[in-house]
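Protocol step 4 of 6: structure prediction from sequence.
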Amino acid sequence: MNKFIIGLILGIAIAGGLAYYLNNAPSQFVNKVTNNQSGVITPNASAPIILAPGTKYQEAESTASAKAVPDAETNASAPSYDFYDVLQGKKAASSATSATPAKKLTRYYLQAGSFNSQNLANDMKARLALLGVNAKIKSKQENGKMINRIIIGPFNSEDEANETMGTLKDSGINATLVKSNN
């Protein structure tokens, strides 16, 4: 019985020592906070940033940098990323480009098919979606028949459109380049 009690006390002591060590050891996974002299709790500079759902990373970063350097506007020309735009392969929108006056741009589109049947058009759109290409179906009445065109784009440059056309061609889909002046 004495061996049992000694083993129990020894086990509790080891568990307590291990718990103390783990709680006081530096960890890269725990967001440690410190109290500054004004009593405000501030996160450690090396701690990861945790964002609320719907918060853009740039907004959180600019808020953090505004606290660190109040007079600096370092992120004014940084691109703004949105999860869904990045997922669809769209480029980041910069505040500098939105301030430029609108001028006529040549836009490029790809037409991946033209079908009389809405079902065939939907099948082609789904096939393109599996390749990671965002396509739209443009329906138009011509000579008493409904024509459903599969349109991909717009692209800002012909090179960008040709790159996508090459990807489609590698997958066995022929596309036609269409220019449009807006």
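Step 5 (inspection) to follow. The radius of gyration is 29 Å.
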